[in-house]
Amino acid sequence: MNLHKRISLNARNLTKLEKDILHELLENKSRFTYKKFTITNIADELLVSKTSVHRLSEKLGYDSFIQFKDDYFKRNEENVDKSSEKDNNFVNLMLDTYSLVSEYISEEIIDRINTCKKINIYGMGMSNYLGKIFQIKLQLLGIPAEQHDDSRFMRLSSRILRKEDDLVILLSRSGETPELLEVLVEANLREIDVVLITETRGSTFERMSKYIIYTGCTQDSDADIDTRLNFHIAMDMLIKKFIEKYKKKV
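Structure tokens predicted for MurR/RpiR family transcriptional regulator (250 residues):
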């Protein structure tokens, strides 16, 4: 479905500000190149928030800002070199993630990391390896952290979580990982604060987690397996913001 079709189907759902942004983008295509068409650059150029730009692409039915960008330039850049376009998509995924993570990492999350006695990290598959890296980084800062990847042990560990002491961080690209659901249910029953790092909006896990940190959306292919760099960015920014606020205590 092309951009104009999406506009005709979804225009009624846009706010006045979002319609104004869309109008400016459609009427002033010469102001942007493919490389510079990013959430940050658009927000700066049109004097609006990055959240408003991202929300516009969502309301038009796009899973990610990159898809919106590709449709926007479909007619103008039919001859874009495929290799260069792929590189641009990768860079924009990282920029998209940086923008989203900056928006959704709240002071409350950072404060909770500081006050909890232990951080419990849960993830499956590729997220398991990221969890181990995150655990080591937290421990180097003197923050007690455990990382769980065995589904059976996950269930056992989640049953001994304590509301006053523990913080749970879930790494789930889809927000629907079956092995993590029981952990999340146990955490909810015990009133444990949960931070979900995910690509997906409207998931089951989102509705059951107190804090959500969104990242840009990635895609796997047989030749190019996703490395979860978007999750790396989210976790690195969590640590960076913690150090900035509590560096005197580290």
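The chain has two domains: 3-104, 107-246.
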